[in-house]
Specification:
The protein has 196 residues and is an all-beta fold. The chain is 0% helix and 42% strand. It has no helices and 15 strands. The strands form five sheets. It has a four-stranded antiparallel β-sheet with strand order 6-5-8-9, with no helix packed on it.
Length: 196
């Protein structure tokens, strides 16, 4: 009549249940070891803010098991009490975790760089020698929008027009303060000539 079996190791167990009329049913019970899992509500994964930066961070919280937990970030320091690792670049990080009962968990956390920030200056050339009608149209991409534009003359205009020959520079800053710069040399066309 006892429906409990304790002090078991992991494995497959068969139990036959019989009622008062002699009817039976067979149960296959797969008893597995406890594996630690992450708490998705608390675990914090922060990728690098800009392409190529090393300011990413991983903070793990375990949803089961028996605290305290030990964390091995496979960085040569072995198991430590801290559940956070910072100053990370884009990469795949393998973290091993042990709880107080020595139950294990292994987690692979992927940190990805944002897409590189690019200015993508698109010119409309000067039409004739002596004219000042060149245009520069930026088409920023990558990074984290929105973007802030700043030209070499201090303007934040979305484009530059009415340009004579010369060198023009643009710096773009995204929402994470990532920056990129581009320079374009506006050149006048060769003078129109006629020969008789």
């Amino acid at each position: 009549s006892n429906n409990t079996l304790s002090n078991l190791s992991a494995g497959l167990y068969t139990a036959i249940v019989q009622d008062s009329l002699g009817c039976t049913d067979t149960l296959e019970l797969d008893l597995q070891e406890l594996q630690l899992v992450l708490d998705p509500e608390v675990t914090d994964i922060i990728p690098p803010s800009c392409f190529g930066f090393t300011d990413g961070q991983i903070t793990l919280e375990i949803a089961n098991g028996l605290p305290p937990y030990q964390f091995d970030f496979n960085d040569g320091n072995g198991y430590v009490a801290s559940n956070a690792l910072s100053q990370l670049s884009a990469n795949n990080y393998t973290i091993n975790v042990l709880d107080a009962n020595l139950c294990e968990g292994q987690f692979i956390i992927a940190l990805a760089d944002p897409v590189p920030l690019e200015a993508n200056l698109q010119p409309i050339p000067i039409s004739c020698t002596g004219a000042a009608d060149g245009v520069l149209l930026p088409a920023p991409s990558g990074g984290t929008p929105p973007y802030v534009l700043e030209w070499e003359n201090g303007s934040n205009a979305p484009e530059r027009e009415g340009l004579p020959p010369g060198s023009y520079s643009l710096t773009i800053t995204d929402a994470n303060d990532c920056t990129t710069s581009a320079t374009y040399e506006m050149i006048a066309p060769e003078p129109l000539t006629a020969t008789l």
